[in-house]
């Protein structure tokens, strides 16, 4: 491995940079708790940090102190963004703990017009920022309190906040529940803080479900890396002892959780899609069904709430609800109740919150989204009744911890009322609660191990540079488990007759935990920088006049990641063309491999039929795959032939075949078009095969194509499948391959053997055609990104020799098995082969 290449790989190692200011211990307000006085300097040193501290650990004090200290060292305005109804908590905290030399001036504002210089620490609500009333660019520092807004990846608020705060020098988030049900939500906080681009983080740490867009799971081999990376910019704190301080006064109260199921009216079960009456109400599996179930069970749930209140009428309680109908029903049945709701005057809402906190009335009715964040109600209240439940665990757990907090001296009773039809909702809520507890335990373990001093350099994320090279060879193949650049550098000049490879699609996937992995790059620019080390080697080892066939695909950029609001396309194939041209290859054209637009939409959600009807301007077209034909210039530029041409035998490659390949002159067989009724009876799979063949034989008619699909759907609604395109036209153009069988890959063998499948395997059809078109028998076919070794495997079966490298040891091991199997298959003579050998043997 060259020194330059190793330096490039080493520069990939990065955790969150420290871009803040240093603060001495004696500068921190001595009235604050010990753990707060340790966390504040850590956050200020980083400059852009997240504080995920449990309920009651003084996140309010931390934020005020950070803003105060920044004001002593850096000129500029400072801002804390808080949820509705929470500003009074900051005012109370400042009055209690920030006095004398450490006093602060907090000023609540609603717009830029309210700004009055740099001296105050400004407070505002999220709505003022989101609606454009307040420009964060006016501030040198900002902190988001209870920053749940960042969980809504792709929402208007999330997309608005990222660019608005981009220029803010110091950025912080503080919340107790950063990722209650999905680990990937943590990267939204990293995106806001500027630690790592959200799209880049998604690609780096999460594997995609190729069948369903948005279904991302943390790579098992990257789990340690992910959590240690998070630790470099975020602090998870469950109790002060996690960072070495006493837990005295910081013990959470016991919780008494009671579930109450109320029956539903099965007489209102209705009918199914075919009109058949239902005996029982369906379980509420989705948001829409859950909302309907809540309305139908409202009276039963209110009655149960009244029974519970009757157990201790004088106690103080929070009555949590989600629907306005529920609020009105509560107000009609609970004497003296006060409510907090969106259409009510803000000042009245805040007054009700403060009065309940101070114990001035008994029952408070409110929604988790209104009062579930930031409010501390534990002083006089230890009882909550959830009059209904929903899927939003974040809102639920925040609501629970309005009373389950440090400083609570009583056991907290949590009554949760739900209907019989909402059992699925309860199960979902309980599962998310377990996931939340597991997440907090995991991060608690990391903070106890590493403390606030960061991760030692020799433990950076368990990644490696370099790989212990392994080689497996046979008579017709030689493959290596090695870095692609290093392995190519070992090959002799002009020794490879054909390169067939599917290069990584930038940072779209990562295949290993090694820094050598080309997928472990920041963006396209960074990816091509690593390719700059490989491509010159491929040009050097390729025989003059021979081809490198590069399989590529454009990348879909989701609007929620780019901020464009609409899915766009990164022209990755075009970047690839110019990359290879820059390194001396000749561009000979490209082959288009057609993909199924319906299947693609299931993976990306960008070509939806319903969205097309709403606004056709947001729909592009399906994204095909391409094979770029890049040629190494021949030695003799006066002739166009390769130094060793790829010669076709007329007996094997007829004039007729050439004409079909070159011109695709396919004549009709005379078969008539089947009627829609006949097509419906064939089923979707046969329809797809038949229609492709028919479309090649007939003169194409767009309106007839559309009309046929409409007629089929009219004949039997639902006959056109939603999971793939049944009426995909065939291609006459030899540069457009419509008939590649997507399932013919080595993943079929992997699945049958119950071993790890490749993330994006190369189809046999593509490899076979390229080998047959652009190489001679006995030629050496090379793939620097071997994967499961599809290229050498098919090269052996096509009478060539195969060679490849692969970084992933699991793929390498399985690929070696396939290559050996291919050699064994060739070594077994066929019956006709034995018969042909007999005369020669007899003559001897």
From TrEMBL:
Reaction(s) catalysed by this chain's protein: a 2'-deoxyadenosine in DNA + S-adenosyl-L-methionine = an N(6)-methyl-2'-deoxyadenosine in DNA + S-adenosyl-L-homocysteine + H(+)
| InterPro entries hit by this protein | DNA_methylase_N4/N6, P-loop_NTPase, SAM-dependent_MTases_sf, SNF2-like_sf
**Residues in coiled coil:** none
- EC number(s) on file: 2.1.1.72
Q: Does the keyword Membrane apply?
A: no
Pfam annotation, one family: N6_N4_Mtase
UniProt keyword terms in alphabetical order: Methyltransferase, Transferase
Under Gene3D superfamilies, the record lists: P-loop containing nucleotide triphosphate hydrolases (3.40.50.300), Tandem AAA-ATPase domain (3.40.50.10810), Vaccinia Virus protein VP39 (3.40.50.150)
Query: For this UniProt entry, which segments traverse the membrane?
Result: none
Annotated DNA methylase N-4/N-6 domain ranges read: 496-801
Name by which UniProt lists this protein: site-specific DNA-methyltransferase (adenine-specific)
